[in-house]
Request: fold
Amino acid sequence: MDPDIAKKLLDLETKIDAIYASAEKTRNYFKWTLIATAVLFLLPLIIMLFVLPSLISGITSAYSIGL
Reply:
């Protein structure tokens, strides 16, 4: 094989490895962003699922006492 072609192939392989590493970092960043978004959105919804009924019950019982 021609030494010039071998050098170009080696350079291309190095660049491809760098692109792969960068793509993996970006994928990891997006994954953790998705997880954080899901937690920060779903966690309050789950908490409201348990807190809201007791809150509504307390408010309605407070208003029904006066009647």
User: Anything to note?
Assistant: Residues 51 and 57 are 10 Å apart (CA to CA). The chain has one helix and no strands. The longest helix spans residues 3-65. Helices lie at 3-65.
